[in-house]
Inverse folding.
């Protein structure tokens, strides 16, 4: 029932839940919906709208009031004077205040630019340390910190000093100092790791080049050695004959042998001897890695210029870090990089110590190069963690607080929907039975020749074939859409907004007291400017009816990633509710989806970008990673490094797909890990990647059909599952999954940090071990179910088509990112995806009208059948380029008859 008055217990629970969301500075609408959802999940009768709204309003007011009161007790009068001077309280201009000059982190890895970044970081560090006691006392969540800090970055001096309560300005500044410091620590780690990797890769490349250059000389030496070996054997044979000559005296034998040795010595080439000696020296250096160390030493000076000062400025957490590394880093800091001859060597491997310390003297250049390498490995492996960071803390810092997890264990499991997995022994027993049954079924079908698409290679490995799925090559949908002429992209977006009202999600960044009134023209112009990669300045220049200042103001205050994604979800929701889109769903209560990345060059310096000659030539780039379902809706997007695996980001997208059906998600083979199989299973998602390779380790025992029939041979599961490890860390696994499910932290954050731990972390190993079981079951299904493989092929085909679609939409400035910061790249990508979804929705509406207006039943069925064989991802009819006219753009009549479209029924 809805609309009842709350009792005190229920009201207290909802108030606490509202405060938790408010502490993360979520928008009132999100908090309101979260409370409604909380009521349904906990069987609380949903109260009236007014009562829920009052709870939300009070939670915001109390949250802010508590912070301001706490702040007022912490800040001293001299602190307030300092902060007033910092922001220039008396400044009357509309220029950015001084601290906003620090808002952008230099993305370059050039030594001079790194030095400037460190100078900026020192300013931030001084302010952070000065107010650290206040910041600690306030204990603001990371989400609220980011919100307040971003407001500072967007604001002008006049806006910053406009608060009626001056303490609110100070509160925002505390958050700004914290966020800037945490962010810059992370960026400095990124620069450090990237620079060290580059130096070590350069050393390997130089070694390979050296190997190529010396190959001819080495071959000559090998021939000389072979020649000398033959001569030596011949000499030994002749000496043997002399010693066996019984007719010769001892003296005669001696002189004959002496003559032979003299002849051998005279015949031996000095050049050959030199070549052999050189080869022996090279082999000795290769065996001891001397060449590698010599090359690293030669590159040390260049690397020191980039990273020595970074190592000194990073703040590490000694409680969660390797003590030997903390010891050497502290020595490095104390000596200001001039480490001397008594530097600690505990962190080095024995073989490295032999190369670094020669004759009791320390090779400082090589020492520093190896130190930087060990620090990089330790940060990535979790042996070295930062104290003030968003991305490089200990893995335990990202999970639900351990004491809270123990105290509210059952409540966490219930809220996260994990109660059925509480008993690990029962879960494993059930999976064991399921897996054994699956093996029996697959074996029997294989034995009875009921799986004609499965065969066995000569080497005994299974091989599968997947028949192609029917697809309309005549481009029926594209031709039908084009028959109505071209539609300008700005008009198409306005048409779509009339249908679903996505513009309403572009709210002012301030949660309260916003005075910005957005026009549909400025929002659409901003979407095209960012989503088509035109840029705002050029967009204003080639547009009529929207000014540069209006466009800049709209994008600055309203184009936050959360807003764009919320607008995107509105379009996706409208797509999902259409009868025509539902006709593309192949199985009832199941939704197939897929994800893949598109490589894109970055035209400016970017720490996230990485080099790949295969994809970017001599340039660097990133990856637009997008998700699509079988209704052709692009429901999530992000940007990742081209050097990263895509797997950690898969769950981020899956958690952002608001559906009630069972979700079956596919990626290419490189988009999965065993730990991902574990996570998706516990989250209730079926993970179904495409396997191009066959004969995975999880299956063995295949020989051939004949052998199988004769011997009754069975396909057996791998026996290398470490059940003890799974059981031991089962509660940690559930805590890990609950952290994701309850949005305490993103899956990508957790998996990226955890996966770098490799073998050292038992939680990661336990996740992988459990994932092996789930992967085993899936591979058996994959080999046995041809229709599943076809569905996976079709879904990955859709994502490949959507990548071509994105290339057409993101058309300007050579299809390259013009922003170096990842947040800005994500905003451009989100705008592009919104435009793509708007085109898909428009296509659905257009084709739905055609169907609705077709009265002949047979013709109608034929029309629907033709549409279902094609794809709604079509853009030939959309005019994306040219000059854009926004005058009176919203004054036109509705393009589509939505009453007729929504009444459409398709069987």
């Amino acid at each position: 029932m809805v609309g009842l008055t709350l009792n005190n217990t229920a009201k207290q629970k909802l108030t606490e839940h509202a405060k938790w969301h408010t502490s993360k500075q979520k928008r009132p609408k999100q908090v309101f919906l979260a409370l409604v959802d909380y009521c349904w999940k906990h069987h609380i009768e949903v109260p009236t709208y007014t009562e829920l709204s009052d709870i939300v309003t009070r939670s915001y007011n109390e949250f802010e009031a508590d912070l301001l009161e706490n702040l007022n007790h912490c800040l001293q009068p001299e602190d307030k004077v300092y902060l007033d001077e910092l922001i220039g309280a008396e400044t009357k201009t509309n220029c950015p205040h001084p601290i906003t000059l620090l808002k952008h982190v230099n993305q370059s890895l050039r030594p001079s630019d790194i030095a400037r970044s460190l100078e900026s970081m020192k300013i931030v560090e001084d302010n952070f340390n000065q107010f650290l006691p206040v910041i600690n006392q306030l204990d603001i969540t990371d989400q609220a910190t980011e919100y307040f800090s971003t407001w500072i970055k967007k604001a002008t001096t006049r806006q910053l000093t406009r608060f009626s309560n001056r303490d609110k300005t100070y509160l925002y500044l505390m958050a700004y100092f914290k966020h800037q410091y945490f962010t810059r620590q992370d960026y400095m780690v990124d620069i450090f790791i990237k620079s060290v990797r580059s130096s070590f890769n350069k050393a390997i490349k130089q070694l390979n080049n050296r190997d190529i250059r010396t190959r001819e000389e080495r071959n000559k030496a090998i021939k000389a050695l072979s020649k000398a070996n033959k001569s030596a054997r011949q000499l030994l044979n002749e000496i043997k004959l002399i010693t066996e000559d019984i007719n010769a005296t001892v003296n005669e034998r001696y002189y004959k042998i002496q003559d032979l040795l003299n002849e051998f010595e005279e015949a031996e080439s000095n050049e050959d001897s030199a070549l052999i000696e050189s080869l022996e020296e090279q082999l000795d250096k290769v065996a001891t890695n001397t060449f590698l160390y010599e090359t690293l030493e030669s590159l040390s000076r260049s690397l020191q210029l980039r990273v020595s000062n970074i190592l000194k400025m990073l703040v590490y957490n000694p409680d969660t870090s390797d003590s030997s590394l903390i010891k050497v880093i502290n020595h490095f800091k104390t000596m200001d990089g001039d480490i001397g001859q008594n530097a600690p060597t505990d962190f080095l491997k024995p073989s490295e110590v032999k190369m670094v310390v020669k004759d009791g003297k320390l090779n400082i250049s090589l020492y520093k190069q190896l130190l930087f390498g060990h620090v990089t490995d330790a940060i990535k492996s979790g042996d070295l963690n930062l104290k003030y960071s968003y991305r490089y803390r200990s893995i335990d810092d990202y999970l639900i607080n351990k004491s809270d997890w123990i105290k509210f264990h059952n409540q966490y499991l219930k809220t996260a929907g994990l109660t059925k997995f509480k008993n690990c022994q029962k879960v494993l027993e059930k999976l064991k039975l399921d897996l054994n049954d699956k093996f029996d079924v697959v074996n029997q079908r294989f034995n009875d020749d009921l799986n004609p698409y499965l065969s066995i290679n000569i080497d005994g490995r299974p091989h599968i074939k997947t028949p192609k799925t029917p697809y309309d090559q005549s481009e029926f949908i594209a031709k039908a859409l084009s028959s109505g002429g071209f539609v300008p992209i700005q008009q198409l977006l306005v048409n779509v907004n009339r249908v679903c009202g996505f513009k309403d999600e572009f709210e002012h960044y301030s949660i309260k007291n916003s005075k910005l009134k957005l026009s549909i023209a400025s929002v659409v112009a901003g979407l095209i400017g960012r989503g088509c990669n035109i840029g705002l300045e050029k967009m204003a220049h080639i547009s009529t009816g929207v000014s540069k200042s209006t466009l800049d103001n709209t994008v600055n205050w309203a184009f936050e990633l959360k807003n764009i994604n919320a607008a995107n979800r509105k379009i996706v929701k409208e797509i999902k509710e259409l009868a025509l889109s539902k006709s593309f769903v192949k199985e009832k209560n199941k939704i197939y989806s897929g994800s893949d990345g598109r490589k894109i060059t970055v035209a400016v310096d970017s720490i996230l970008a990485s080099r790949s000659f295969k994809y970017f030539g001599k340039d660097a780039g990133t990856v637009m990673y997008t998700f699509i379902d079988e209704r052709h809706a692009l429901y999530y997007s992000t940007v990742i490094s081209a050097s990263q695996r895509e797997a950690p980001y898969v769950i981020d997208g899956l958690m952002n797909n608001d559906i009630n059906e069972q979700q079956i998600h596919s990626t290419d083979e490189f988009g999965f890990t065993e730990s991902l199989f574990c996570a998706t299973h516990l989250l209730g998602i079926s993970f179904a990647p495409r396997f191009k390779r066959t004969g995975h380790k999880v299956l063995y025992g295949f020989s051939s059909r004949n052998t199988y029939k004769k011997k009754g041979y069975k396909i057996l599961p791998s026996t290398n599952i470490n059940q003890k490890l799974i059981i031991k860390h089962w509660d940690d696994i559930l805590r890990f999954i609950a952290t994701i499910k309850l949005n305490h932290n993103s899956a990508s954050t957790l998996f990226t940090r955890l996966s770098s731990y490799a073998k050292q972390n038992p939680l990661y190993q336990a996740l992988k071990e459990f994932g092996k079981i789930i992967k085993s079951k899936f591979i058996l299904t994959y080999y046995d179910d041809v229709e599943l493989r076809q569905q996976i092929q079709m879904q990955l085909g859709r994502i490949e088509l959507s990548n071509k679609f994105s290339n057409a939409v993101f058309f300007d400035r050579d299809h390259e990112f013009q922003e170096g910061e990842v947040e800005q790249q994500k905003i451009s990508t989100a705008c592009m995806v919104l435009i793509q979804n708007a085109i898909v929705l428009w296509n659905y509406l257009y084709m739905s009208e055609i169907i609705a207006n077709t009265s002949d039943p047979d013709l109608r069925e034929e029309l629907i059948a033709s549409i279902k064989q094609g794809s709604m991802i079509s853009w030939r009819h959309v005019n994306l380029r040219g000059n854009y006219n926004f005058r009176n753009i919203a004054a036109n009549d509705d393009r589509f008859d939505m009453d007729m479209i929504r009444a459409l029924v398709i069987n």
Notes: The mean pLDDT is 85. The longest strand covers residues 590-601. DSSP finds 38 helices and 18 strands in the chain. Residues 594-693+723-808 form one domain.
